[in-house]
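Lecture notes, part 5. Sequence design as translation. It can be helpful to think of inverse folding as translation between two languages: the language of shapes and the language of residues. The source text, in structure tokens, appears below.
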């Protein structure tokens, strides 16, 4: 069979390259242009054949001996998931991949904390691919999306607080909620009460004491207090919790808290 017939046969069935001894470059190209992964069955491919194979299937890089840094960078820029098939990818390659998707962190070996933070800032759920993320990494993830909490085993108090600060719905992802933890998180975002079951045992006195401890602070979180003052769960006759916030702040609030109170009510 002459070369042209081999090429025609390979166009119909590129896998036939496995059974051809000493194929010509044209034969190799006929096969890999259709299925780059067939590079695995070609001995001593030319540079042209390698380029054609990678163009068709970037994952075929796993069959390239000693690929250059430039080639690897070009492939990763084209498809970040190629990182999976690169043995011991460099820090530069990992960074290139993470620029496209934070999920690329799962193919990095012992990534630095800074790299992990970049990954979760790109895709918050990339934290599921990080073994034992530090508190800094956890915080970066929940700041992007509170739902990152679902992928964190044993989050610290600071991480849970940051999650509910972003969105009170994060309370749904706080496991084994106790009264003490519920009150701590209430001191971060008053709207979490909507997600606290009565079985937790939070009382009016518990809430009032927590509010006093917060509003008495000189460096009170302004956004927290403004949220508390507009939370319809408190104050009015139809409110769930009959706590007079104005009175509490006037009697127990710091100067800063009283100023925020005045400012808030001048809006209306």
């Amino acid at each position: 069979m002459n070369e042209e017939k081999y090429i025609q046969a390979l166009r119909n069935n590129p896998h036939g390259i496995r059974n051809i001894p000493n194929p010509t470059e044209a034969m190799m190209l006929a096969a890999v242009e259709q299925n780059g992964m067939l590079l695995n069955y070609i001995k001593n491919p030319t540079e042209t054949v390698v380029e054609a194979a990678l163009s068709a299937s970037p994952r075929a890089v796993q069959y390239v001996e000693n690929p250059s840094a430039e080639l690897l960078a070009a492939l990763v820029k084209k498809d970040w998931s190629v990182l999976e098939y690169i043995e011991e990818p460099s820090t530069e390659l990992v960074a290139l991949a993470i620029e496209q998707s934070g999920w690329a962190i799962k193919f990095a070996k012992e990534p630095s904390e800074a790299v992990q933070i970049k990954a979760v800032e790109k895709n918050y759920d990339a934290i599921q691919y990080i073994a034992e993320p530090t508190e800094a990494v956890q915080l970066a993830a929940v700041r992007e999306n509170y739902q990152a909490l679902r992928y964190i085993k044993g989050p610290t108090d600071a991480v849970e607080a940051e999650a509910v600060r972003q969105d009170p719905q994060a309370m749904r992802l706080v496991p084994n909620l106790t009264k003490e933890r519920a009150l701590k998180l209430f001191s971060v975002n008053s709207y979490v009460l909507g997600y606290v079951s009565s079985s937790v045992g939070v009382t009016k006195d518990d809430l009032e004491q927590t509010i006093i401890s917060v509003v008495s602070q000189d460096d009170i979180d302004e956004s927290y207090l403004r949220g508390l003052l507009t939370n319809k769960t408190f104050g009015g006759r139809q409110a769930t919790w009959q706590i007079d916030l104005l009175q509490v702040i006037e009697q127990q609030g710091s100067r800063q808290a009283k100023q925020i109170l005045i400012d808030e009510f001048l809006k209306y």
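The translated text above is only one of many valid answers, since several sequences can fold into similar shapes. The radius of gyration is 30 Å.
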